Predict the 3D structure of the following.
Amino acid sequence: QVQLVQSGGEVKKPGASVKVSCKASGYTFNNYDISWVRQAPGQGLEWMGWLSGYNGNTNYAQKLQGRVTVTTDTSTSTAYMELRSLRSDDTALYYCARGSGSSPQGLDYWGQGTLVTVSS
Amino acid sequence: QSVLTQPPSVSGAPGQRVTISCTGSSSNIGAPYGVHWYQQLPGTAPKRLIYSNTNRPSGVPDRFSGSKSGTSASLAITGLQAEDEADYYCQAYDTSLGENVFGTGTKVTVL
């Protein structure tokens, strides 16, 4: 069965960087896009960006341009999301999901989420 | 500030029908891409509920249905059950922004 398993929670200071991993299993990793979505405490879902499984192209939310990078390691079927210059309002649950959102199937499988806390 | 607007909350008694609207524009819901809906139960990751406007993944009860007309989409829940208490989000691709957008989210309460 399809599974996306994310790395554990992180506590970071303002200005630092965080890198969250998402290990996929149960499907051919390269055949699907990977998206990242975050959710601040008590707030709604915010799309961050995605990486094409077909050609490795990326697309990021304008709000996060320049601070976020999504990469993959196809040898381990793992996706990564790095967020730099962290601020307190980056405190959120970060989810990886299979798909690009613009694809006909939407985001069909989700990871369990990784809590990133930014605090001095 | 999301470009897709949903009512903050809807409620209904068990067995009733409730609908959740998702209002956008010609660059997102009105664009030739599908609208998707997600259910987020308390303390859990979102789960895909409806894809490409009207399609239900296997395992999703047929009490859930989606529709789209012009620049709006709707999710209907018929025969409301206690386990349907959750937050629901619509999602679409915005051709003007060049990115995916989520709705503001709707909390469904079963009275």
